[in-house]
Amino acid sequence: MAGLAAGFILNADEGKWLTGLRDPRESIRALDVPFAAITLPEGGCVVSKGIEVWDVPAPELEPVDRTGGGDAFAAGFLAGIYMGKDMRECGAMGNSLAAGVIMKNGARPEEVPLP
């Protein structure tokens, strides 16, 4: 995948579709890009910078409405990159913003604090 994009933000199904690999940790390595994040169906995400890969857990939640959760994750993750955070912090920011969105009805929360 190198050369196609500077980075990827995907969910686990998209990672499997793009790489043909079932394990998100294998998928993220196969993407071969400077940075990537794959959100996991059980919550949390896997992030990478080059060949380094980290799991970033998220608290267990009972989502009210998943609408906008992926977009919120991407916004938080990219905000972390813009702010110069390390990949684990970027993943935590994405998880936090997504959690604030999926715990309410609709995709636009009134306010969601970033860590």
What does this structure look like?
By secondary structure, the protein is α+β, with helices and mostly antiparallel strands. The protein has a single domain, classed as UDP-N-acetylmuramoyl-L-alanine:D-glutamate ligase. The chain has helices at 12-19, 24-31, 69-82, 87-102, and strands at 7-11, 35-39, 45-49, 52-56. The chain has a 4-stranded mixed sheet, with helices on both faces. Helix 1 crosses helix 2 and helix 3 runs antiparallel to helix 4 (87-102). The chain is globular and about 40 Å long. The mean pLDDT is 90.
**Cα gyration radius (Å):** 13 Å
Strand order within the widest sheet?
1-2-3-4
Mean pLDDT: 90
Low-pLDDT residue spans: none
How many domains comprise the coordinates?
1
Distance between the termini: 31 Å
Main β sheet profile: 4 strands, mixed
Element order, helices and strands? EHHEEEHH
Keywords:
UDP-N-acetylmuramoyl-L-alanine:D-glutamate ligase; 4 strands; about 40% helix; alpha+beta; about 120 residues; globular
Topology, please?
Blueprint (H helix, E strand, L loop, with lengths): L6 E5 H8 L4 H8 L3 E5 L5 E5 L2 E5 L12 H14 L4 H16 L13
Parallel strand pairs: 1-2
Antiparallel strand pairs: 2-3, 3-4
Helix pairs in contact: 1-2, 3-4
